[in-house]
Specification:
- The structure holds two protein chains of two kinds.
- Chain A is built from 13 helices and two strands, in the order H-H-H-H-E-H-E-H-H-H-H-H-H-H-H.
- Helix content of chain A is 69%, strand content 1%.
- The model of chain A has no long low-confidence stretch (mean pLDDT 86).
- Chain B is built from 14 helices and two strands; from the N terminus they run βααααααααααααααβ.
- The longest helix of chain B is centred in the middle third of the chain and has 30 residues.
- Chain B starts with a strand and ends with a strand.
- In chain B, 72% of the residues lie in helices and 4% in strands.
- Chain B is mainly α.
- The mean pLDDT of chain B is 87.
- Chain B has a two-stranded antiparallel ribbon.
- Classes of the chains: A mainly alpha, B mainly alpha.
- At the A-B interface, helix 4, helix 10 and helix 13 of A face helix 6, helix 12 and helix 14 of B.
Chain lengths: 306, 358
């Protein structure tokens, strides 16, 4: 029983990692006022690129690097339509998702079902990994796990304490006032969208080369959309995103725990999606003024318009 | 020195709108060609194959019309929702729910009732199924301010799992040799086809009727006007005393219900049984988003854009078979065309002039 709880929590951390990465990225992006619904597609692109590069070169970190590069590059498309052309961000994001899912499916077709033999070893942190219970759950994980937590904390510090982070936030709150301060808000928005894309692709890379070590079409399974919901649940705060993501990691894992009890596996696979609706319902009871949503989220900004 | 001046364009003529869309589509096709080239497929051959497969032969055109039925039904419903800025991305789930409800009616009442009663009943129950599934995000948005993009998407996944649960569990057919899926619908519940094709004419006529009626609803009725106000100027709507919950509920009942009708057509007209979600609908709910967008949110124009995108789906199948491309190819085509369409809109809304100076 004890072993089972530890194993479950350990898997929950693994399942929460891509959610945390994608949520952190989406928070940075949305803080600049751009809603990016392309997470799911960029994640799929990241997954397929990381998988192909790792498989052909044998270097997982090169795969991760290429995935992040591709994720940032393809996100420019969304930045261009929503920032430069002031297009509808919902439609543009959807288009990016379609494109990402399509290109990844096409690129990955020869690789479907092939197992990845290159292993990315778990990293046991000296001393800390020997703490009973916690050591196993938190300190002997895949490098992606530490990276995700580190990046979330770093993103919090970046948004709250650094000059650029404050510029990003004020762009999302009041682009006009920000611009009068002599800040190039177009550059800020492009940058934020690209950072967000890089994070989504990193999440995808984790899925294909560490989590499942294979590629199949549709393997992202709505995780990108859940990350967008988690962004709201985390009140646009990367610190809160950490526990929100791992809570959802737990929900993803708990399906396998309940399966032996004779509950329909199809019912159990609904759980993450139902849970997403439930957390959004819970958060709606909060005072909207304290939700912290960027004031200009999703609003196109046109220079010189009153 | 060349100076680029960008200014707002206040009046947009229908001709300019049409030409902009046309140029967007053509440049979209050009970009799709580039992607094919990048992936090592002859772009001219691929684009040629898409259109010759769908519009080039009588057989292909019949298939195109078959696939246009769900696209027109869903797409025209989406124009109404999108006009109110209600981003219903959940038509896929609403279609599946319609299929589930209609299958129940067909499977469990089909043997007891004659065809002239069971077919209308199936359409009715499919409409109810889609409408109920569409009402959930409407209530969630208005009462609990939950973003409808996320809620409709989550409901898609939930519905697909629910359907799978039914066909591997309680509804599993005894004639399927252990494979998931219900038994075939009784003869009386199967829709008639136009001879020599797979066009189920009842749904085909219904889809045209719906597009026409919705066009009248949007432009000529008080409700249509209110829906547009909710989308374009919610503050004014609030002052004018528009009931947001009522308006949103009605438009989602219509939008979801029409998606449900599309589900009935797929089940009763094409498959004749309820199978896996991916088999019931080949992504019609998502393609219909672009159908609505290309139609400039005018339900009547979905008749044209629906047939166009049905052609792309049929042509996509054709190149999948002849070039060995994966099913995701259609997603690329859709994504690129949608991006080009929204890029084109920039040139509609803004006037760009080049000034040459010394």
């Amino acid at each position: 029983m004890e072993d089972m709880i530890i194993a479950t929590l350990e898997r929950a951390m693994v399942a929460g990692t891509p959610l945390l990465l994608a949520t952190t990225g989406e928070i940075i992006c949305e803080r600049s006022g751009i809603l990016n619904l392309g997470v799911e597609g960029v994640m799929a692109m990241g997954a397929v690129v990381a998988f192909i590069v790792t498989m052909t070169t044998g270097e997982p970190w090169l795969g991760v690097f290429c995935a992040v590069g591709v994720g940032m590059a393809i996100s420019i498309l969304h930045a261009f339509t929503s920032v430069s052309l002031q297009a509808n961000q919902v439609v543009s994001g959807l288009a990016l998702t379609m494109l990402g899912l399509g290109i990844s499916g096409m690129m990955g077709k020869p690789y479907v079902g092939k197992p990845l033999l290159i292993k990315m070893d778990d990293l046991a942190i000296p001393f800390l990994s020997e703490i009973p219970y916690l050591g196993k759950i938190l300190f002997s994980q895949s490098p992606f796990f530490y990276l995700a937590v580190f990046l979330a904390v770093a993103a919090w510090f970046f948004l709250e304490k650094t000059r650029l982070g404050i510029q990003i936030r004020s762009t999302g709150e009041n682009p006009k006032a920000t611009e009068t301060q002599g800040i190039n808000i177009f550059r800020i928005k492009y940058l934020s969208v690209m950072i967000g894309g890089g994070f989504s692709a990193l999440a995808g890379a984790h899925l294909s080369i560490s989590y499942s070590k294979s590629w199949i079409e549709g393997m992202t399974a709505g995780r990108g959309w859940i990350a967008i919901a988690l962004t709201i649940f985390a009140l646009w705060n990367p610190g809160r995103a950490i526990w929100a993501a791992f809570l959802f990691g737990f929900i993803f894992v708990v399906q396998y725990l309940l399966q032996p009890l004779g509950i329909s596996p199809n019912f159990l696979s609904m759980l993450p999606y139902i849970a997403t609706l439930i957390i959004l319902l819970l958060i709606s009871f909060k005072d909207p003024r304290r939700l912290n949503a960027p004031a200009m989220l999703g609003e196109p900004y046109k220079r010189g318009e009153r | 020195m060349i100076k680029i001046l960008i200014s707002d364009r206040y009046e947009i003529s229908a001709f300019r709108s049409f030409m902009t869309n046309l140029i967007s589509l053509v440049s979209g096709l050009f970009m799709i060609g580039l992607v094919f080239l990048f992936l090592g497929v002859n772009p001219f051959y691929a684009v040629f194959k898409i259109f010759s497969g769908s519009f080039g032969s009588f057989y292909g055109f019949k298939e195109t019309l078959t696939k246009a039925i769900p696209l027109i039904l869903i797409g025209s419903g989406l124009t109404l929702a999108f006009r109110a800025k209600f981003w219903n991305i959940g038509a896929e789930g609403q279609l599946l729910m319609g299929a589930v409800f209609a299958s129940w009616t067909g499977l469990f009442l089909g043997n007891a009732l004659p065809s002239y009663m069971i077919v209308p009943l199936m359409f009715f129950s499919g409409f109810i199924g889609g409408a109920l599934w569409g009402m959930i995000p409407a209530i969630l948005k208005i009462r609990f301010s939950i973003n409808e993009v996320i809620s409709t998407l989550m409901l898609n996944y939930i519905c697909a799992d629910f359907l799978t649960m039914l066909i591997v569990g309680p509804w599993k057919g005894s004639t399927r040799f252990g494979f998931p899926g219900t038994d075939n619908l009784p003869e009386s519940a199967v829709l008639g086809l136009i001879p020599g094709s797979r066009i189920h004419y009842a749904t085909f006529i219904l889809s045209i009727l719906c597009a026409v009626i919705l066009c009248i609803v949007i432009y000529k009725t008080r409700f249509g006007y209110e829906a547009r106000v909710v989308g374009e100027n919610p503050d004014a709507g609030r002052y004018a005393g528009i009931d947001f919950l009522k308006t949103t509920l009605i438009l989602m009942i219509i939008s979801g219900g029409l998606a449900g009708l599309a589900g009935v057509g797929e089940i009763a007209g094409i498959h004749h049984y309820l199978g896996y979600p991916a088999a019931v609908s080949s992504g019609y709910g998502f393609t219909a988003i672009i159908v609505a967008w290309l139609a400039k949110l005018n339900p009547l124009l979905t008749l044209i854009s629906g047939i166009f995108f049905a052609g792309i789906l049929v042509g996509g199948d054709a190149i999948q078979i002849s070039l060995g491309l994966p099913a995701a190819t259609v997603n690329i085509v859709n994504g690129i065309l949608l991006i080009c369409l929204i890029m084109g809109e920039y040139f509609l809304k803004n006037k760009i002039t080049l000034r040459f100076s010394k």
